[in-house]
Design brief:
Number of strands: 5
Order of helices and strands: HHHHEEHEEEH
Strand content: 5-15%
Mean pLDDT: 76
Helix content: 55-70%
Strand order of the largest sheet: 4-3-2-1-5
Oligomer: single chain
Number of helices: 6
Number of domains: 2
Largest sheet: 5 strands, antiparallel
Shape: elongated
Distance between the termini: 40 Å
Length: about 220
């Protein structure tokens, strides 16, 4: 019982870190930039605004606003620079270091996987979206086909039509279950990975528009 509780506690702790970490890093970076820019820019900007602003408090508020916008602009500029080949290679080097760090590599990989799925710049590890009966018959859930099951697993199960399906949890799809299903038990959905992830994360409050089914044979995976 204690082992199950500790496992439950640890899994949810990691899931919470995965959700909080990107937000925390973003806030920390912007706060760091604002503090540094305040030391360099605040006084010159206040002096520049003084002839045009009668009240000192208004001038200080506007100066801090300008500094904050400058910090945002720097973040945007860094994002633009990552598209340059040399800078991209530098980021790639640090990314390789992240993948070598225990636990960090799992969190970073999961965040990147979900980000790539949403941005749609390149194919994610999710091949297609299906509907499966899980955790029992009569209950349907969204799943993502990742690959064909290994032959050794097929032999152990006594079946040759198994596929690996990742069943995500709500609202954090980076935690979930890998379940092996027979191909014929997986119902294909006319949804993109991005649309399906939105449904999962929003707990069904965001639903994709109904699409016309132009494929008469919709049972193939």
């Amino acid at each position: 019982m204690l082992k199950k509780f500790l496992r439950f506690f640890w899994d949810n702790f990691i899931a919470g870190i995965v959700v909080i970490l990107p937000i925390t890093i973003t806030i920390f970076v912007i706060r760091f930039l604002v503090i540094k820019l305040n030391k360099v820019m605040l006084n010159p900007v206040v002096l520049w605004l003084s002839p045009h602003i009668l009240e000192e408090e208004q001038g200080l508020f506007l100066a801090k606003t300008i500094v904050f916008l400058a910090a945002i602009f720097i973040v945007v500029l860094i994002g633009l620079m990552t598209r340059v080949l040399i800078i991209r290679r530098t980021f790639s080097f640090f990314e390789k270091l992240l993948y070598k760090l225990p636990m960090v590599n799992k969190m970073y990989g999961a965040i990147k996987e979900i980000s790539n799925a949403f941005l749609g710049k390149r194919k994610s590890g999710f091949k297609r979206v299906v509907l499966v009966e899980y955790p029992r018959k009569g209950i349907f859930t969204i799943g993502f086909v990742t690959s064909e099951a290994k032959s050794s697993l097929q032999e152990s199960a006594g079946q040759d039509g198994l596929i690996n399906i990742y069943v995500p949890t709500t609202p954090n799809p980076t935690s979930g279950m890998l379940v092996l299903f027979d191909k014929k038990d997986a119902i294909p959905l006319d949804l993109s990975v991005e649309e399906a992830l939105k449904v999962v994360i929003s707990a069904g409050t965001i639903t994709p528009p109904r699409k016309q089914n132009t494929n008469s044979d919709n049972t193939k995976i």
